[in-house]
Amino acid sequence: MSAPRLGITRRLLPPILLISALVAAACTFLQGRQEHERLKWETRQRAIAAADTLRGAIEAVWPLDQPGQLHALLDRLRDSAAALYTADGARVAGSSNLPEKFLPMPGIVRDAIHTNQRTKGIETDNQRWWYVQALPVRVNGAVRGGLLFLSDLSPSEAAFPRLWRQALWRVGLPALLIALLIFLIIQRSVIRPLTELMDWMRRVRTGGAERSGPVPRSGIVAPLTREVTHLARSLLAARLAAAEEARLRHQGESRWTPERLNAHVRTVIQGRPLIVVSNREPYMHVRQGKALRYIVPPGGLVTALEPVLRACSGTWIAAGTGEADREAADEHGRLRVPPEAPRYTLRRVWLQPDEERGYYYGFANEGLWPLCHITHTRPLFRAEDWTHYARVNAKFADAVVDELAGTADEPFVLIQDYHFALLPRLIKERRPDARIALFWHIPWPNPESFGICPWARELLEGMLGADIIGFHIQFFCNNFLESVDRTLESRLDWEHFAVNRAEQTTLVKPFPISIAWPDAPAPTTDEASPRTAIAERLGLTARWLGVGVDRLDYTKGLPERLLALERFLEKYPEFQGQFTYIELGAPSRSLLPRYQELEAALVSETDRINRRFHTKSWTPVVFLKKQHSHDEILPFYQAADVCLVTSLHDGMNLVSKEFVAARRDGQGVLILSQFTGASRELRDALIVNPYDIEQMADALHTALTMPPEEQRARMARMRDMLQTHDVYRWAAGLITELANIRLEAKISSAPTREAE
Length: 756
Ligand code: F6P
Fold this sequence. Notes:
It contains 23 helices and 23 strands. With 756 residues, the protein is of the alpha/beta class. The strands form four sheets. The chain has a ten-stranded mixed β-sheet, sandwiched between helices. α4 packs parallel to α6. The two termini are 64 Å apart. Bound molecules: 6-O-phosphono-beta-D-fructofuranose. The site of 6-O-phosphono-beta-D-fructofuranose (F6P) has 13 residues, from α8.
């Protein structure tokens, strides 16, 4: 038994035993006394009845002509004695066992004769205790004498110890047993879980995550366990963060953490407001029965920005598109998030259905999206979509200005993505003091491609209202600067990568976005490994697993990926029955025909390939079409031998980075399209051209036959890179750059930064 349990047991056992003993004693006493009284009462009732019977017999034979008859009657008495006296005190007869003391008429008989009433009492003859009755003997209504009737109390007194013993067995002992049983129950369901929890917490305190073992969850302390687990996890995370800080200090490296970003941003923005604007909100509320529930939408933007807002606080303005969004917000559309531990404000902007159709589905996703991604999907430009796009940008400008009303000068506004090309200019016109950055999360095409947009000029004018425009990579910056050069009157400063126009200078810089480097793992539980759990859940028998995690978008190269899988199985038949690919595909923009076509094509291609190769126990492709949460995706990353990212064109692609971050074990291979921003950083991935099916099939073969040491070496280099280039560094870079802009310089053409 562990020391704490022993301590608690020692403290609890004596009082429980003492109380049980007292309860048992009290019960025994009460029960014994009751039995005792009952026996006494019965003895006396019997004595009274016997005395009455004797008196009746005497009165019947009065005047006692045959005294021998009377003696014989009295001698038949057992455990009793009797004597008969005349009214003047002479003893007429007496039983042979009558104690000497009662030979002369006792006073009690005299009293009974005088009062004509029965008199009772207890007396002793120094040998026994007697219950004494004196009864007047009446003949024809007149008192003729007195009867003394003695009942021996010794037999009933002798029964009392037996009665007490019985009471002890019947009541005292069960009471003691019940008390012990209660103690055992407390021991099992409270003391034991509590001490296990204490042991576990001590291990956490002294040994860390690895040594803490599984969290005890039994007994009525289970709810407490949950709370304590959270607390312990925070403690572990804090300790690991501190250890990591120490390690980094020691190494002189500069790793960014939420705490460091928070401190940095506070120094840099000096109490001025921080606003983030995006179309997609970080939390969407939906109804589930009567309850409100929230979901985190898929996509890189939310993945990247949410940790930054958590670290820096501020306000995130976004379109409220969840079916229950209005119910979860106040009358201004505001609510504090994350819902379970609020750190910043989410301000929802409400869009009419026709606005959402024209601005989001139409201009943004049927126009700009295919325009910026070179995937041979033709952009659609409709005048009414453009009108809605402009109107919604103005609506968001109102929301930003409204949030900034009455706040300090020079607020920081970080605008996200291609939904808001017009927003920087609209805000700048109304708040010239605002420091505005626009980050474009998708590629920027070459000037020829961009030039087909009927509103190219308006888009660039709007964007150049920002002080900084950020892209993921330098290549997109160059494309943008060339597009400006071809479209607008401006002076390009290729030395500083800036656009100078009459009243505004805009820096155009790469800020490769990233992910939040994951905290220390939660203390492991006795759950099965991700690989075993997934195989069991999906009924998989294959030796090797591949995974892909995508929004179902035509830019992600999904049909090409399926063709490559098919070619791989064809070309390397030894992997048939041995390799299964799992696609976690989140439906996206499903109102648009192009996306509906894609979903249908993926389903039918998956079916075709499965029909072609499957066996009784093996399915080559598993297509899980639903939005998976980060927690649901993580085990797939951890279980996979290979992760496939085959985008035809992608600004960055954070799935590739999430996969690397998830592989603490150093194993697993990343196959990455050369047309992603991430391929510039993750150079140890197997870089492929997604249009080259043969090359992708070979890359898959290389990945699955790569020796573990090579996997580890590649993974270690990618992890090192990502660990120091996380989203906190990205945010710090963008915000620092924005803070360094000299606003007054914007009316001149002088270089615009105070410091490099
Ligand atoms: O990566 C581009 C992007 O628009 C992101 O801004 C967003 O996170 C993602 O695609 C998801 O798209 P949507 O918001 O249209 O679902």
